[in-house]
Records
---
Amino acid sequence: MPVFRIRHLTKYQYSGVVRHGHSEARLIPLDMQAQKVLSWNIHITPEPRITHRREDFFGNQVLYFSLEDPHQELAVEANSVVETWFLPLPTKPSTRYIEIRSRIMAEPAFFSERQYLLSSVHCPLGREFRQFFLAICPPNTTLLDALGRLGEIIKKDFTYDRHFTTIHTPVMEILKHRRGVCQDFAHLCISLFRSVGVPARYVSGYLETQPPPGKEKLRGADASHAWFAVFDPNLGWLEFDPTNNKFPDDSYIRLAWGRDYADVSPLKGVLYEGGSQTLQVAVDVDRIAEQKFSLISAETSH
Amino acid sequence: MKVYQHENVLFQGYRVSHGYDEVFAPDGSIRPTYEFLANYFFNLSIREITNRTNELARRLQETSFSYSVSYSGNDKNVEPQNTANLDCLPYLVSSQEWQKLEAGLIQRAELFQLILHDIYTEQRLLRKGLIPAEVIFAHPGFLRPAYRSLPAQKSLYLYGADLYRNEAGEFVLLSDITQDFRGMGTSLRNRIVLSQVFPSLYRESHVHRVAVFFRTLRQILRGEGDAAVVLSSQDNPDSFREDAYLAQYLGFPLVQADDLVVYASKVYLKAVDGAKEIQSIFRRLFDAYCDSLELSHYSQNSVPGLLAVQRMGQVQIVPALGVSVLENLALIPYLPAIAKYFLGEELRLNTIPTYWCGDEKHLKYVLKNWDKLIILPIHDSLLRGHNLTREKSLQLKKMVLREPHAYVAQEIPQLSLAPVWQKGVFSPAKIFLRTFLVAEGNSYQVYPGGTARALVQEEVAAEYRKDIWVIASEREMEVSLLDRSREKLVISRFAGYIPSRVADNMFWLGRYLERIDMLTRYLLYIFDKIRENPLAENGLLRGVLRSLTRLTGTWPGFCGELNNETQLRLELKRVIYQKEVAGTLAFNINAFMYAGRNVADRLSQEMNSVMGHFPSFLQEKELEEFMAEADQLLNYVSSMYGLIHENMLRNHAWRFLEIGRSLERVQLVIRLVSAFLDDEDFGSLEMFEALLKIADCYLSYRRRYHFRVDRAAVLDILVYDEGNPRSLVFQLDKLTPLLEALPPSGSHSEDLAKKNVLKTRALLEIEEETLMGSEASNKDIVSLFHKMLTLTQQMGDHIRDSYFRYVELQRQLEDLLILE
C-alpha cells in the first residue's frame, strides 16, 4: 500500500501580456476503490481572482479559476498525496465481449455506461476498428482475454514514437501507421472496444517510474500517463494500460476519466491577448511511504 | 374526395381536393371563424388586394431589418429579401380552438421544464429507462459541462412548437423548440405591418393582442433593473436582423459575444464608459458558441466563463445554457410515459407519430415503411423534407443503419390548406404553424398568434408567411410595452448603456456616409460633363478624372493609360461598382450598410428605412442608367443628414456618429484639395469649377468672386471659412466640444485625440500666410496638407484606442500531448 506524493507543475510563458483569462484544472486525483487522496493543494501564480471547485459530470474534481490581472506567466502547481492499492483481477468469470452490448441495453441500471458506447471527439467508431478487433479476438473471447490479446498486439506491432503524433492526430492514423504515444494507444483501444459494443473510457493519471539502475531519479522527469478502462457487466470497470501491456497496479495514480482526452484535459483555458505561448511541464511522482496498513483505517474494506 | 370551389371571383382558381381546408367547410360554405374576413375580402377588388399586398411588401422592406448586406466582399452582396412574402390573408383560429391548443402546449411546456431539470440533475428518467440513454447522451445539445448548472427553480423560460392541422381539423405537434426561437421577431413585425395595412379589418376582427406576451418576456428579463441584453451574432445576418428588431422592441441593447466579458464571476458589457454589470441575457446565440472554455473550444468569439457564471447563479440566461437537448425529436415517442410519471396525466396535445431508430422494434418498422416516412436527425427538425432521390435515400439508409440512435422517422403530415394571394388570385397553400410560450408564475403564457408558413406547390414552389390571428368573441383592451403601473416614476434621461461596438459602428457609419456623399457629388459632376461631350474628347475633364483616382486610391485608374472611350467608361464603372476595391462607391456603400446593420436597433425607423434604399445602388447597371438615378442617392444621403440632425437624441451614440462625420469631412477636404493640387492641369478654369462643385461650395464662391479664379480664394473658402460647413476650420471647431462631451474612458488616448484637434487647428493658424499667399508652390501646399492628414488620422486612432477597444483576441491555452 504505497503512498505517493505527486507534484505536477505547468508553466506558461507568453510573448505578450495576457489581460485576463479563464481556466479549468483537472489536477486533483480521483477518490475511488483503488486509491484515496490524503491531501491536495493547487498553487496558482498570479493569484486568481476567483476559484471555484466542483465535481464534473464524470465525477472528476475541477478547479475553475479566473485571472484578472495582466500577466506574462502562469504557473499552476498541483500537489497531492495519494495512497494506492493493488487490486487483484476479479476471479468471477468475465463476459464474452460479444454479449456485452445486449446485456447493457437490457438493464436500465447500466444507463450511464451506454454513453461509453458512442463515438466521441477523439474516438470515432467504424468498420476498420471492428475488423481489426475481430481479427485478434474471435467472438467467444471474454473481455479479460480480449484485453490481454490486444495488449500483446500493441506491444508487438506498435511502436512508441513521440515524434509521430500531435494532440490532433486522428486515431485512424495511429491504426494505419502503428505508432504513437500512450494517449494515442488509449484512444485507439477505446475506438476498438466501442466498435464491437464494449463501453470504454479514457483514464488520465500518473505512473511511478524507476530510474535506470544505479542512477538517481531526476527531478521533474516523470510525466502524465494515460490508459483506458472497459466495462464488463459481471466485473465492473476494468482498467488496462496498452502502452505497457499491463493491468494497472499500485504504481498507477488516477487523475480523471471521461469519454476521451477532451473530457479530462488537466489544464485548459481561454486567454485574452497574450501572443505566442511556451509551455513547460514537470511531474514528480515520489513514493513517500510503504504502509503495511492503510492510512485510512475506516476504509480498508476494499 | 370533394372538390370545393367558391363562386367568388377571387377564388376562381382555388380548388382543394384533400386535407383540411382552413377557410371552407366540406360543403363549400365558409367556416364561421372566417366569415367576417371573407366578406371583407369579397368587397375588395383584385386591384385593391394587389395594392395592399404590395403595400405590405413595401412596409416590410422599410422596417428596420429588411436589408441584408454582407461585408465580406464575396459575391451576392445584396440578397433579395423574402420579407415580401407576407400574405394579406391572416390565418385565423377561434378563441375556443386556441384555448384547447393552449392547454396542450402549456402542459407540454410544464412537462419539458421537469424533464430539463431531471436531465441535468438526478437523471431519474434515464435510470428508470423512461428515456433511452442515447436519446440524451448522443444528442449534441446535451452539454455535460452544464450538468447541475441550471437554476433549480425555473430554467425553461421559453418554449415553442411547430404544429400543423390534420384532416380532422385538430392541431398536431411536429417538433418542440427550446432554443432556436427564430420567428418570434418576425411574428411581431408581421402583426404590426398587417394591422397597419388592414387597420379596420384588424380592429373589427377582435384579434387577441400579442404585446402582452412581450411584456411578460420583458419582465422576466428585466428583473430588478434594466441590465438586460439581447445576445446575437452577425454570423447569421437573417436572424441578426430579427434579433435587432426584437431588441429594439424590448428596449434592451443588442450585443454580440465579444461585447460581453466575465470578471469575478459576473457578466459585464463593454461600454464606452467602462464595464457595466449585466443581470440577464436573452440568448439568441446557440449554446455551443457561448463559452469556448467549457462548450465548443473552436468558437473564436464567445464569452469564456459564461457557463461558470450560470453555474454560480450570477446571471440569468434565457434560454439557459443546456436547454437545446430538448430540441429532440427522439423524446416524442417517450413523452406519454413521462407525462404519466411526472404529472399522472395523458398528453393533451396530439403529436405526429414518431419512431426513434435507436429502438430495434421502431427501426424494423422504419425500414419496412421507409418510403412512407420522413427521416430526421434527432436534433434537427429543420431538415424536414422527403421526396429524396433514390440515391439519396439509399445514402440516408446507410447513415441510419450506422448510427440508428441519431435518427427518427416521422409520418408524413397531411397538412391543412389555406388560400394565399398569388398573381391576382387565391391559391391553396400547405400550412405549418409556429407559436411560442413564455413562463409566467408557475405556469406558461401562450403567444396569442404566431407565424404560419404557407407553401404553394404549383409549377414553381413559393413560400409565404401568414400572421396567425386568434379571434375573440369580444374586443380586447390595447396593450403596449409602456408600463401602466401607478408607482411614481423616477425621471431619468439614462437610456441604457452604449456598448463600445455601437460607438465604433456609429463612428464608421458617419464616416462612410460622408465618403458616399463626396463620391456621389464627384460622379455627378463627371456625368454632367459626359452629357455634353464624350469622355475621350473631353480633354479638360482628364485632370478631374485623374484627381478622382487620387482621392479614391483606386490605382492606377485614370492616372493609367486609358485612351479610348470604352476604357474610360469601364474605369468609371469600376469606381462605382467594384465592391472588392477599397475606395469605390460600392465598397463604401457596403461598409456603410455593415456599420448600419450593427447599430440598426439604435437608429429610428425612418433612418432604417432610408438606409434600406442604399443597397439598390449596388446592383450593377449600365452607366447611363446609373447616371439617371445617381442624384437619388444624393437625396438619400441628404435625408440621412436631415434625420441625424432632427431625429436623433443627442446622446453618446449620436456624438460618435457626428465625430465620425466631422473627422471624415476634414480628411476628405484635405485629400480632395491635395488630389487637385497634385494635377498638372490645376489652374485651369475647369479644375477650379470641378473642385468647388464637388466640395459643394461653387455657389458661395461665385457669389463672392464671380468667375475669378484664384488659389487663395479657393483655399480660403475650403479651409478657413468659419461659415462654411465644408471647411476644415468649421469641422475642427465642431470636433472639440463633441470630444469634450464624451464619457471619460479612463484612457490616455482620449486626451491625445483632443490634442490632435488643437494641433491641426494650430497648424492652420501658423500656416495661414503660406496658404493664403501666392508664393508657395502647389507642392508645398500638398505637403502641408499631408502633415494635417497625418494628424487627423492619428486622431482617429486615438479615438479608437480610447473607446473601441472591445475586440480582444481570445486564445486557447495550448495543450500538451500526454507522454510517458
---
Amino acid sequence: MNRDELERALREADVPDAVGARERARRTVLTAHGQRSPRRAPRAALVWAVVACAVAAVVFSARDTQPAREVRERVRDVFAAPTPAPTAAPAALSGRVLVTEGDELFVVARGRRTSLGHWRDATWSPRGLYVAAANANTLAALDPTDGTVRWKLVHAEQVRFPRWAPGGLHVAYRAGTALRIVYGNGTHDVLAGRMMAPVAPAWRPGHPRTLAWAGYDGTVTVEDADTAKVLWSFRSSQVRQLAWSSDGRRLLVAGRRDGTIHDVVTGARARVRVDGKIVAAAFGRRLALAVFHDGRTSVRVNGETVLSAPGRLRNLEWSPDGRSLLAAWPGADHWLVVRGREVSAVRHRFGGAGRVRGWATP
Amino acid sequence: MSTEEHAVQDAVAGWVRVGRPLSRRTDATLVRAAQAGSTEAIDELFRRHWGAAHRAAWLVVRDAAAAEDIAQEAFLSALRSLDRFDRRRPLGPWLHRIAVNRAIDWSRARALRPETPADAVLEPVASAEDGGIGEDVVAALAALGPEHRAVVVLRHLLGYTPGEIAAMLELPRGTVNSRLRRALDALAVALDEGPA
C-alpha cells in the first residue's frame, strides 16, 4: 500500500448514511443560525446611555450635592418594591412553557395548552426543537408540537431529572441512583456516575460537555461528559439544587437554608444566607431565590425582594432572554412574571399539581 | 457577458459582494455575510466543509451516529462563536480541529464508559456495515487506537502537515511523527505487507 492508495481509500470509504446525516445536520445548523441574532453595530442610543451613566457617576461622586441626593432617593424607590399588585397581561409570557400536571405534560404557548402525553418530568432541548421527558422507567425525546415520540429508552429503574446539554449532544438523567448520559439521538446510553443524589444535574452554559451533579455524600462533581475527566469537585453538607449562571462561570450549590456560589474560574466562593428555606432557585444573568419563611415565600433577585406572597412557591424560571422571571405558586390560577419593575399575572388552567419545567423561545 | 460588464460586476462585488455566485466567494466573505445573518452563506459554508468534517469524524470513531453528532456539534460550535471568529483565519482547519479532537475524546470515553444497552431504542440507527474500495484499509485503520487514527486521518485525508497536526492536537511535532510512523507500520502489517 503506497501513500496514494491510502489516501484514495480514506477518500472513497463509504460513510454509512452519509446523505441522511448531511441533510439532518444541515437542517439543524440552518435552524440554529435562523435563531441567532445578527451582529449589530453599536447604536447611538447605546452611546447616549454610556454618556448618561458617566454623568450619573460624576453626580454620585459628588456626595452632598442636591442632584446626588435626588438620584439616590430615586434608586431606592425603584428597588424597594416588595409587594407589587399583579395585572392581567398574557403577552408577558412570550415563548413556550413546559408544564407537568400529575403525570401529564403540556406545552403552553400564546395562551393555549397542548398535551404531549403522560410524562412526569421534562426539559427543553437547547433550541426548543425537542423535549426530553421521563415517566416511571422511561426516558423519551418528543416532538413539542404534538408529543410524537422520536426515541425512547426503557430502564429497570425509575427515571428522573432529564436535562439536555446546551450543545444538544447529550441528555443527562437519573436512573435509579445512577447518573446516566445518552446522546441526543437516543444512542450510546452510558452509566456516568453512581450514588447520585435526587438532585437535577446541571449542564454548564457555553460548555456543551460540562456537567455538574451531586452525590448522596454531598460531593458535587463537575466533569466532562465525554471523557469523564473531573474538572472540579466540591464537598457540601447538603445539596438540594444546582444551577449555573448564564455565563457558565458560577455554580450555585444550594442546600435547604443556605448555599454557596463557586466561581469555577477563580476558585472563589461566596456564601448565600437566607432567613428561611430555599424552596426554588434560578440562575441566569442574575440569581433568583425563593425563600419560604413564616407561611410566605419571597422572591429575591440578587438579594432584592421583587415578590412576596402567601404560600410555598414551587418554581422559578428565567425566560430565554434572561430578562423575565416566572414564579409559580401551587394552587394559584396565574403565574407571576417579573420583568424589571413590572409584574404581570398570567392566568392558566392548571391545578395544585402543576409544575413549570422550562421556558423556551416561541 | 462583455469584458466591460465583467469589470462592472467585479467592481460591485468588491464593494458589496452582490452578483458573484456564492460558490465563488471566499470563506472569509461568506463568514462576514453569515455574521450579518445570511442563511445562504451558512448553507454554502456547510456545503463546503461538512463532507470532510463528517468523514474525518467517522474514520476516527467508526460509529455513524456519533460521527454525525460530532461533525454537527463542530458546526454548531462554529456558529456560536461566529461573531468572535477572526476572518483572517481559514474556517476549515478550525472545524477539523474541533471535529477530530471530539472524535478522539468520544473514542476514549467509549473505552472508559462502555455502553450499556437499554431495553428499547425505537429510532433505528444506521447500519454499521461499510464497504467500498478501501474496505480493508478502513478496517485496518479501525484496529488502531483513536490517537493513531486521528493523525492518519489528518495527514492522509485532510492533508495537514505534521506541524499543523501538532498544533491542532496540542502535541509535540515529534509525537505526531512517531504516531504517524507507528500507524502506517501497523496498517502495513494488518494488510500483510510488512512494515513500510
---
Amino acid sequence: MFAIYVGLFIVLLSGGLVIGGLRERKHLRELDEREREYADLPVLNLKTIPNAHEVSKPQMVMGQVVIATDYFKSLATMLRSLVGGEMRAANTLMLRARREATLRMQAHARRRGCNEVHNVRYGASTISQKKGKRGAMQVEMFAWGTAVKRGA
Amino acid sequence: MLVVNTETIPGHEITKVLGLVQGNTIRAKHVGRDIAAELKNLIGGELTGYTELLTEARRQAVERMMAQAEQLGADAIVNVRFTTSAVAAGAAELYAYGTAVTIAPGSQAL
C-alpha cells in the first residue's frame, strides 16, 4: 500500500516537472510572440491621456485569466515557505498571468478599433481558492484600462 | 453610455456629477469545473472554466452599474474600479463602481 502511494507521488512529481515545464515554456514562447504582435498598441498607466484632443472612441477594456502551476512547482513553493526566501516558481506564475491578462486587454482594445490603452490597473480575485488545501498554486489576474483611438 | 476608468473623457466635458454608481454579483463555482481544475493543478495551465466564469460575472457587475447610472439619467461613468471579496468558500463577490456623470461634447481641459 505504501509503495503505491510513493509510486503515485513520484509519477505526479515527475509528470508535473516534465509536462508542466513544457507547458510553461510553450506559454512563455507564445507570450513573446503575441507581445511582438501588439507592440504597436501601447499600454500606459497614466491617469490623464496625453494630447487628449487627438483621440476618439474612449471605452473601457478588460482582460483576465485564471492560471495554475504544476504539481512539482506547487511542492517546491511549499518547501520554500519552510525556509523563506524568494519563490521563483510563484514569480514566474504571477508574471505569466499578468502578461496574459495584459495581452487579452490589448486584444479587446484592438477588436474595438482602438490603438492605445491608458490608466491600466491590475487586480486579482479568489474564487478558486480552497480552504485548508495547500500546494495547489493558482492565480486569477485581471487587467482593465481605458482604450482610445489616436489619429483618424 | 460611455464607460471609462480615467477621470476625464477625451473630447467631452463633464457637465454634472451625479454620484457613485455600483454593481455587484456573487458567483459560486461548480463541481464540474473543479475536476478540470484539479487536473490543471497537476500539469499547469489555464483554468478556462474559471476564466469564463469570472469574465461573465464581471460583465454582469458592469451591466448592473450601467443600469443604475441610466436610472440617474447619466450618459457616462468615469473612474471605474473593480474589487473582489471572498464571501464564502468557493464563491466570490465581484464589485464594480464608478462616478456617474453627464457629458457634453467639447474640449477636455487637462
